[in-house]
Amino acid sequence: MLGQTLAGRYHIIKHLGGGGFGQTYVAQDRKRSGNLRCVVKQLKPQHNDPQTLQVARRLFETETETLHKLGTHSRIPELLDSFEEDGEFYLVQQWIEGKDLGKELIPGKRLCESEVIVIVQEIVEILVFVQQHKVIHRDIKPSNLMRRISDGKIFLIDFGAVKQISTQVVNSIGQIPPTVAIGTYGYMPPEQRNGHPNFCSDIYAVGAIGIECLTGTFPGDLPKNADGEIIWRDRAQVSNEFADILSKMVRYHFRERYQSATEVLQALNSLKTPPASTVVSSSPNLFRLMSTWTREHKIALASLVVTVIFGVAPLVQSVLDNADGFTSYENQQNFLKMKYPDNWDKQEQPQIVNQEVVKFISPLEKEDDRFREQVTVIVEPSGDKTLDDYTKSSKQEILKLDKNAKIVQDVASTMAGKNGHRVVYTTKEGDRELKKLEVWTLKHDRAYLIAYEAQAEKYDKFLPVVEKMIKSLEVQDGQ
Question: Is 139 a catalytic residue?
Fold first, then answer.
């Protein structure tokens, strides 16, 4: 398929994956300005006899109508086109540039409760819309949840119902037998395995993802009791209120679960925000995971909780100091002061979501500027680690969490008047070549880290400014 052009316009440039039901590709739409990218899904019926093709065609038309309606939601890929060619069926959907949630879930790594609440709530909000259209997704799992690079929002992709077109079999009198079990082990509840999915089946899948985030364990590997209920609370540090919601979402019998996504959303909205201490104890190294995310991911997390901080006085105060074009920033909670360019944007990150204290973003150079350089200040508990211990684990996690990372500088350094360490590495995100700098030191049983991220070709342009920001950092003695 690579290099082929379908329907006279969709030029296949990359194979994304697939299986027995068909294949998925990235294509360029040569009839759209700029040859915009799109996703082309090729669906192959199991048989090509006239009777099977007739039924498959009817299913295809029904499903494309459904996908057109679902694609009106801001976080479901838009269906751009659909057609039949040589006895095979094709869907053309909006291309979401990003990474699937599975890339964020590292085995053995537990996310903090507040972050998991945000993830689950985002998915459930989409599911409310899906259920309003009487649709069951049937294959909600981390790899079908895409976090878009541009704003960090989660998209729900790959609706399993369409796979009926590929997996259905027509009997001798032209009828379709009961629903084929479509789904993925670990996220698929009992009734779905038996071919009888319902709205509660998708709710089970989302609950299983939430439990995976909290425990760092694939749901299919968790033990079950004699009644088939998942045993998981002993593996996570989580409030009883949120744990009760997740447990109800994954009850073995679907009648004992929430009966709609709306009910789940109401339960989540009633949760009280967990204290900051819960965040630290449940995921002390969360900042490292987030330091490998793109700039847009981190900004998006802050936007998800904007309703919490809107109208509330900032935790820190900045004092203008225009003598050298820099502004002073102070955060008393973390005993730090530093300077940043007064023409850069400042975005303070809520501690409840992550360990970031503040982010500084370079000015927009032109209207179509797709990437603005950023400097992020992160503070996290260091425990009883020495600087050597912290440095070793930090470098290991950079390489573990970013498979494209290549360390080009690894040297001792100083920061805030204390011994520290500096690492520079290159990586790729989509079609972008990025270069990143991280420098850290330890004080007050905390790790203070400054991370700089830029497109590789612009890294040196902004480095002098960044070096001045790093040099200006002061970590004061605690009271």
Answer: yes
Q: How many CA atoms lie within 13 A of 46 on its CB side?
A: 10
Query: Which listed residue (100, 139, 158, 402) is catalytic?
Result: 139
The SS3 of residue 156 is strand
Task: Check residue 46 and give its pLDDT.
Answer: 66
Q: Which residues contact 122 (CB under 8 A, 6 or more apart)?
A: 75, 153, 154, 304
Backbone angles phi and psi of 439, in degrees to 5: -135, 135
430: DSSP letter: T
Q: Tell me the per-residue pLDDT of 162-219, one tens digit each, with 9 for 90 and over.
A: 444 334 444 433 444 444 567 889 999 999 988 888 999 999 999 999 999 999 999 9
Judge residue 468's burial from the number of C-beta atoms within 10 Å of its C-beta, 0-12 exposed, 13-18 middle, 19 or more buried: middle
Q: Count the neighbouring beta carbons within 10 Å of the beta carbon of residue 267.
A: 17
Backbone angles phi, psi at 202, to 5 degrees: -65, -35
Which parts of 305-447 fold into alpha helices (H)? 306-309, 387-401
What single string gives the DSSP state of each residue in 96-112? Answer: --EEEGGGT--TTPPPP
pTM over 0.90: no
The dihedral sign for the CA sequence 216, 222, 227, 228: positive
pLDDT value of residue 160:
54
355 Cβ contact partners less than 8 Å away, ≥ 6 residues apart: 286, 287, 290, 378, 379, 380
Instruction: Kindly give the interhelix angle for 199-215 and 113-132, rounded to the nearest 10 degrees.
Output: 170
Q: How far apart are CA 207 and CA 141, in angstroms?
A: 10
Contact indicator for 38, 94 with CB cutoff of 8 Å:
yes
Q: Report d(CA 245, CA 211) in Å as an integer.
A: 11
CA distance 157 to 43: 16
Rounded Cα distance between 360 and 338, Å, is 11
Q: Domains of the chain (ranges plus CATH)?
A: 5-94 (3.30.200.20), 98-169+183-269 (1.10.510.10), 284-475 (3.40.1000.10)
Tokens of 368: 């179509």
Place of tokens 């291309």: 95
Nearest to 109 by CA among 289, 232, 231, 242: 289
| Partner residues linked to 38 by β-bridges | 27, 94
> Which residues contact residue 37 at a Cβ distance below 8 angstroms, ignoring those fewer than 6 apart?
13, 26, 27, 28, 29, 95, 97
